[in-house]
Amino acid sequence: QVQLVESGGGLVQAGGSLRLSCAASGRTFNNYAMGWFRQAPGKEREFVANINWNGGSTDYEDSVKGRFTISRDNAKNTLYLQMNSLKPEDTAVYYCAGAPTIAWWGGLRSVGPYRSWGQGTQVTVSS
Question: Which of 21, 22, 66, 102 has the most CB atoms in a 10 Å sphere around its CB?
Fold first, then answer.
């Protein structure tokens, strides 16, 4: 399995931007579909976005479409989440996750297929 470490979280005003990064260790990163999930206090962990093994397919939760962009650089073993036009309701701990598959299907929106998880990075958006 890959080991994952997120970075890039912080405090930002509404309307601002942040870029999250997720560094993966191991030589099999490009065999993984990758995802970003978030968890706000008192709420369940929810899907944000995901990307297939070669970056050719992406999926987004409706509330972040047009504001967030997921991407990956397999040469650098790194996953990214560019977050623009941030809103207070985006406040949460953001987790990157890896699913050991090159397949692509709607079930990748759920946490079940993901075997590797980072420790999370806090994103706080003030109004």
Answer: 22
